Known about the structure:
0% of the residues lie in helices and 49% in strands. It is an all-beta fold and 103 residues long. It has one domain: CATH 2.40.50. The strands form 2 sheets. The protein has a 5-stranded mixed β-barrel with strand order 3-4-5-7-6. The chain has a two-stranded antiparallel ribbon with strand order 1-2. Strand 6 (79-87) and strand 7 (92-100) form a beta hairpin. The radius of gyration is 13 Å and the shape is globular. The two termini are 12 Å apart.
Amino acid sequence: MRSPCDKLFTPAPCRACPDFCRVPVRTAGHHADMPRAPGNYRRLVGVLHMNGHSPMLEADDGRILRLISSDDLRGFDAVGVIVEGTLSGTNRLQLEWIGQRPE
Length: 103
């Protein structure tokens, strides 16, 4: 499935899963190679819901997080996703990477 965000991301082989992951074009490498803030970096799985212009992740573990990103994530509305980013506060995730969850 193609989304409006495809111009911002490019498929790349993933070491963590059998599918292709979506890696931001503006980064020079795979998401697993990106620097991570100790203790605050998270990889979460869930369903993204748009709340007005604010993307919210309903994580599989029951948490609800507001995703902070300058990218337009409307193409992922009501879609199962995998996200990676840095926690800022208890319910905000500064998004570094997003991809559609394999079914």
